[in-house]
Amino acid sequence: MKKIEVIIREEALDSLKKALSEAGLSPLTAYSVRGRGRQGGIRYKWPEGVEYYDLLPRVKVEIVVDDNEVNKIIDIIMRTVRRGVPGDGKIFIIPVEDVIRIRTGERGSKAIK
Ligand SMILES: Nc1ncnc2c1ncn2[C@@H]1O[C@H](COP(=O)(O)OP(=O)(O)OP(=O)(O)O)[C@@H](O)[C@H]1O
Ligand SMILES: [Mg+2]
Fold first, then answer.
1. What torsion, rounded to 10 degrees, do the Cα atoms 1, 94, 42, 87 define?
2. Cys-Cys with 111: which of 42, 54, 77, 99 at CB 3.0–4.6 Å?
3. Which of the listed residues 90, 92, 93 should we mutate to test ligand 1's pocket, taking the one with most ligand atoms within 8 A of CB?
């Protein structure tokens, strides 16, 4: 099993959730985060002066799946989130040792089916 962690722009969340649901992949965790990529923060010029935003608001989505679903999910993310400009986000793939469904005690793949 793998955990896919993807950090995206807030406005991309709805289309990503919709595309995942349509592919039969509904379970996920999403939460608001703040972050920066390799460009660092952004400098914004207001009439009153320049303001620097060190960390920008993003959404992090976490999905735990069997190994054979990983590429499908990466394809969906690329298709729905990518605009082709800096700040599009990043995908991290992390090995998951075990999963337990609390209600039933099922473990591993059975617990995420
Ligand atoms: N190496 C990293 N470690 C942890 N979080 C990261 C890393 N790179 C990016 N992020 C997170 O992803 C968000 C989006 O990153 P971003 O898309 O700007 O990556 P990038 O490497 O700068 O690529 P690009 O050049 O396309 O902007 C960041 O705001 C940050 O939250
Ligand atoms: Mg960047």
1. -50
2. 99
3. 90
| Domain map (residue ranges) of the chain | 2-112
Q: What is the mean pLDDT of residues 13-37?
A: 97
User: Which band of pLDDT confidence, cut at 50, 70 and 90, is reported for residue 68?
Assistant: very high
Global pTM reads: 0.93
Residue 63: Cβ within 10 Å count: 23
How far lies 52's CA from each of 8, 9, 39, 55, in Å? 21, 19, 13, 9
Give the tens place of pLDDT for each residue, 80-105: 999 999 999 999 999 999 999 999 99
Please tell me the number of the ligand nearest to residue 61's CA: 1
- The C-alpha atoms of residue 31 and residue 62 are separated, in whole angstroms, by 9
58 Cβ inside 6 Å of ligand 1 = yes
